[in-house]
Design a protein that fits this description.
It is a single chain. The protein has 440 residues and is of the alpha/beta class. The chain is built from 18 helices and 11 strands. Strands 3, 4, 5, 6, 7, 8, 9, 10 and 11 form a 9-stranded mixed beta sheet that branches. A two-stranded antiparallel ribbon has the order 1-2. Helix 9 (215-224) runs antiparallel to helix 10 and helix 9 (215-224) runs antiparallel to helix 17. The protein starts with a strand and ends with a helix.
C-alpha cells in the first residue's frame, strides 16, 4: 500500500483517522512465540532477523508494528525493505523467483499481480491455508490467493472498497445538496445517475471547475463492481465482449464528450494541483484515496470535502495486497508467524488507524478503531461504517494474469478521449491493439 493505487504503482499518503485508541492488550493477545527449530536463520544466541520486502506504504512502520513484534518476541528483529513504486518492485520479484535467490522472508504482492503469481509461481511460496485463518477475510480476498490445489500463497492485507469523495463547497456553489445521505440518494441508481448529477453540476458550476477528475477512474469503478471483468473463469481474456467493460467504456466516453471531466491522469502533478486549487468536485474513492486527497488538497481545504457511498447498490474493490512467504527462506516458520500476526484483526485495525487503508480481515470491522472511525478532514465522515458496508457488497470477481495491462491500456485511451478529443471508436481500437500485443 503505497502511493499510486493501480497495478502500475501503488501510492498512498497517510491520512489521520479519528478513532478510539487501539489497546496494547489487543496487540499482545495476538503476539507470537519464540523461534522455531525448523528455522535455519538463527544466530548462536537464537536471534533471528526477518526481512520484509514490500512497496509503497503498507503502514507497518507508521503503526509501530515491527517494534511491537520485537517487544513480544525479543529474539526476533524485523527489517523492512521498501520499494517506492510497485512497477519497479514487481519485475525484481519475478527475477528473484526465477533465479531462486535474493528473496526476503516475507514478500508483498499487489492484487493486480496475484493471479499471475498463483498461476505461475505458486510452488515457490509456503501454503498458509493451515496456519492462517483465511475464513476471517472477506471471501473473495482469500480466493484471489488460492491455487488450484487449495494452497493459499498470500495473506490478505488491505482492500479498497469504493466510496465517492466530493467537494462540499463546490457542490454548494453549484446548487447541489451537500449532505452525504442526500448525495448518496441522488446516485443510488448507479453510475448513470452519477453522470446525470454531473450534468446538474455543470449547469451552475463555478468557472474553471469540473464535475470529476478522471473518466478512467469511473471506468475502473464500473468494471470493478462486476463479477465479470477482463477474464472468464477458464482464464480466457473476454475484455472485448465483457458487459462491464462495455458499460464502463460507454459511460467514460459520455463523460468525456459532455466535458464533465477535467481529464487528469490521477496522481500526476496536474491532478495534485487540481485538488489544491479545488477545480474538481468529485473523485472516485477507494478507501486509500482519502489519503491522497487530504495530502494534495492540503490544509486549506480541510472540511470542504466529504465522503458518501459509491453510486449503485453494488460496491467495487480497487486495490489491496498480500503477504507471502517464499519456501526458499531460512526462516519460513517464523516468517509465517509474523504474517499471521500482521494480518490479524488488531494489527490491521492499527494500520487503518495509522494510514487509513481498510482491513481485509473482517474481524477488524467491529474493533473500535475501525467501527467508530471518522475522517476529520472529510467533515468527520464515518469511514469505518461506509467502507465496511461497501466491503459487504463487493462481488467475487474473476482475476486474470494481465488485468493490470488491460486496465492501464484502456485508461490511457480514455485519457486520450478526454485530453486529445480522440473519438471513442479510434480510442477503443488503439486500446485493443495495445492489449493484444501485450497479452498475445
Amino acid at each position: 500500500m503505497r502511493i499510486t493505487r493501480s497495478v502500475a504503482g501503488r501510492r498512498r499518503r497517510t491520512v489521520f483517522v479519528a478513532t478510539t485508541g487501539l489497546t496494547v492488550t489487543a496487540l499482545l493477545l495476538t503476539g507470537c512465540g519464540g523461534s522455531s527449530d525448523s528455522d535455519k536463520g538463527a544466530d548462536a544466541d537464537g536471534n533471528i532477523t526477518l526481512t520484509v520486502a514490500d512497496f509503497g506504504q503498507f503502514g507497518y512502520k507508521e503503526a509501530g508494528l515491527f517494534e511491537k513484534y520485537h517487544e513480544l518476541n525479543p529474539k526476533i528483529t524485523v527489517k523492512e525493505d521498501t520499494t517506492a513504486e510497485e512497477k519497479n518492485y514487481y519485475p525484481k520479484l519475478l527475477q528473484q523467483l526465477n533465479s531462486g535467490s535474493g528473496l526476503a522472508d516475507v514478500q508483498g504482492i499487489e492484487v493486480g499481480r496475484i493471479k499471475e503469481i498463483v498461476d505461475t509461481k505458486a510452488d515457490s511460496f509456503a501454503d498458509l491455508s493451515k496456519t492462517i485463518g483465511v475464513d476471517e477475510w472477506v471471501s473473495w480476498k482469500a480466493k484471489q490467493a488460492t491455487a488450484p490445489n487449495g494452497a493459499v500463497i498470500g495473506a490478505g492485507t488491505d482492500i479498497g472498497p469504493m466510496s465517492l469523495c466530493y467537494n462540499r463547497e463546490l457542490f454548494e456553489k453549484a446548487g447541489l445538496p451537500t449532505d452525504r445521505a442526500e448525495v448518496a440518494k441522488l446516485t443510488e441508481g448507479g453510475w448513470e445517475d452519477f453522470l446525470a448529477l454531473g450534468e446538474q453540476y455543470k449547469k451552475k458550476a463555478p468557472e474553471g471547475t469540473y464535475f470529476m477528475d478522471s473518466a478512467s477512474a469511473m471506468f475502473n469503478a464500473v468494471v470493478s463492481s462486476s463479477a465479470e471483468q477482463y477474464y472468464d473463469a477458464s482464464g480466457k481474456p473476454i475484455y472485448e465482449k465483457s458487459a462491464s467493460v462495455e458499460k464502463g467504456w460507454k459511460l467514460a466516453a459520455e463523460a468525456a464528450s459532455k466535458k464533465l471531466t477535467q481529464g487528469l491522469a490521477q496522481f500526476e502533478d496536474q491532478w495534485q494541483a487540481a485538488l489544491r486549487k479545488s477545480t474538481v468536485a468529485t473523485v472516485v474513492c477507494p478507501a486509500w484515496m482519502a489519503g491522497q486527497i487530504s495530502t494534495y488538497a492540503g490544509d486549506a481545504n480541510k472540511g470542504k470535502w466529504d465522503i458518501t457511498s459509491a453510486p449503485g447498490d453494488t460496491s467495487a474493490n480497487w486495490g489491496g495486497s498480500f503477504l507471502a512467504v517464499p519456501k526458499s527462506g531460512k526462516n519460513v516458520a517464523e516468517a509465517t508467524k509474523l504474517v499471521k500476526w500482521l494480518t490479524a484483526p488488531a494489527q490491521q485495525a492499527a494500520v487503518f488507524k495509522a494510514i487509513g487503508v481498510f482491513p481485509s480481515n473482517q474481524g477488524a470491522y467491529d474493533l473500535p478503531d475501525v467501527k467508530n472511525a471518522t475522517l476529520p478532514y472529510f467533515n468527520n465522515a464515518p469511514i469505518g461504517q461506509i467502507y465496511a458496508d461497501g466491503a459487504k457488497s463487493i462481488p467475487e470477481a474473476v482475476l486474470g494474469p494481465k488485468d493490470g495491462v488491460i486496465k492501464d491500456s484502456i485508461s490511457t485511451q480514455i485519457n486520450n478521449m478526454e485530453q486529445r478529443g480522440t473519438s471513442p471508436d479510434d480510442a477503443w481500437d488503439a486500446a485493443v491493439r495495445t492489449i493484444d500485443k501485450a497479452i498475445g
